[in-house]
TrEMBL record:
Domain of life: Bacteria
Pfam families per record: EcsC (PF12787)
Protein name: ABC transporter-associated protein EcsC
PANTHER family: PROTEIN ECSC
Amino acid sequence: MEAEYTLYEQQMARQLKRWEIRQQITPNFVERASKSVQTGINNLIPDKVHKTITATVKGIIQTTLFGINYIPAQEPLYDVSLADRDAKAEELLSLYKKIAAAEGAGAGAGGILLGLADFPILLGIKLKFLFELAHVYGYSTKDYRERLFILYVFQLAFSSPKKKTELLKTIKNWHVISDSFPPAAAYLDQVDWQQLQQEYRDTIDFRKMLQLIPGIGAVVGAWANFGLLEELGVAGMNCFRLRRLQDKVNTGSKEQ
């Protein structure tokens, strides 16, 4: 359907295809070895600790998805070109990378206790960014289904390649799948929260562990948080680009 796209949209469509392929590439030896080590460590952690971390992640995400505090005051952007949306998204990402880096530097300089406190704070920053990003691309987070989409985007950004393939399939078919969703509360009961938090921790563990080392914590904290927001930004922008291009074909949108 590229004929219906502007030149910029055609370029983005090609870029998205390359990005999709990268999401599904089989992990290399180093990545597989790293995953094996992380799995071994996770197996040594008592179930009680896993349950505590799972409850923390679940509580933060559910509070965010059901609450109104994260819904941006600014209305979603309508009748805006994809190029303009991308430009605004880049500005938003730049701002949030600075916010996350500053928070990480402060937490890293504060030692182990502040370093541990950084975990829920950074999670909140990431989710707030995704809420605002949704509005940049014209999707209102007042609709609970858009909040669920944010949950899928978040998981895609911080999951193993095997899990990414499954999540990407859902994201690409969102316009069909979302229509059959049950109420938000019922849907969230179906989420495997332990798997979600474990995939998330496995993705960020190494960088965040370095943040706890005395003397380099501030520098590493800023570097780690900046990089994690960059990864989330790339995933988020590409997921919303996919939807905008699909919407244009499915509805005959004339965004210019």
